[in-house]
Amino acid sequence: MKERFPSLIALFLLIALVAGTWWAADYAQRAIPIDPPRRLTHEMDSWARDFVMLRTDPAGQPINRLEGEYAEHFPDDDSYHITGPRAIGQQEANPITVGTSKTAIMEHGGRRIVMNGNAHVHRQQDANNDSLDVRSEQLIILPDDDVVYTDLPAVVIKGNSRMSGTGMRYNNKTRQLQVSASTDVEIAGSETRKRPSGDSTQTQP
To answer: Second label for 194, Cα 20 to 30 Å away, from 21, 29, 52, 140?
Structure first.
């Protein structure tokens, strides 16, 4: 029994040490206030001036470029609010397009750009088509699809032809223009002769 007594004392001290450590850790955890999880609110977390953003295809070739005077990033929806934006689409085999407006919001990782205030998209002239201009108070650009559309009144000018309407969608890959409700259409004779090999226009009631 005398031989086991020191071992029992050591075991008792070890148990007391473990219990004391557990109690101290629990007490410290309850005594020190822990900040609650941070709430995601629509607050800016970063900004940039005179910036340029590039998106590339799988081969590393630039296909879209976005630049602006000032941008703020909001982490709650991962959006960028941009002042003085200029969006350039330069996908291979498609005419280059340039979009400008007073402000813009880039969403969904750059897959959607909402151009607000005096929005204007210009498609450059190519071998088969005249230049194309679309103007509205809001134009939504889908860079990956090379599409621009709006549900608001818009004016489209191609060469000497002009079309006004509410609700418009232009696909730069297919060169197809759709206007949901046209109110004023002026198509020049030369444009009518070119149409079979160039842009196509559809109006929907």
So the answer is: 140
Amino acid present at 172: N
The H or E element spanning position 19 is helix 5-31
Cα of 99 vs its chain's centroid, Å:
14
Separation between Cα atoms, residue 135 and residue 129, nearest integer Å: 19
Rounded distance between C-alpha atoms, residue 123 and residue 10, angstroms: 85
Q: Please, are residues 95 and 129 in contact by the beta-carbon 8 Å criterion?
A: yes
* pLDDT tens sequence across 117-170: 999 999 998 777 789 999 999 999 999 899 999 999 999 998 888 889 899 999
Long-range contacts of 95-102 (CB under 8 A, 24+ apart): 95/123, 95/124, 95/125, 95/126, 95/129, 95/172, 96/123, 96/124, 97/121, 97/122, 97/123, 97/124, 97/146, 97/148, 97/172, 98/122, 98/124, 99/139, 99/141, 99/148, 101/139
The pair of structure tokens assigned to 43 is 């607050």
Q: Determine if the pTM surpasses 0.90.
A: no
- Counting Cα atoms < 13 Å in the Cβ hemisphere of 199 gives 29
| Whole-angstrom distance, CA of residue 137 vs CA of residue 153 | 8
The answer to whether the beta carbons of residues 89 and 122 sit under 8 Å apart is no
Q: Residue 131: which of 161, 87, 164 has the closest Cα?
A: 161
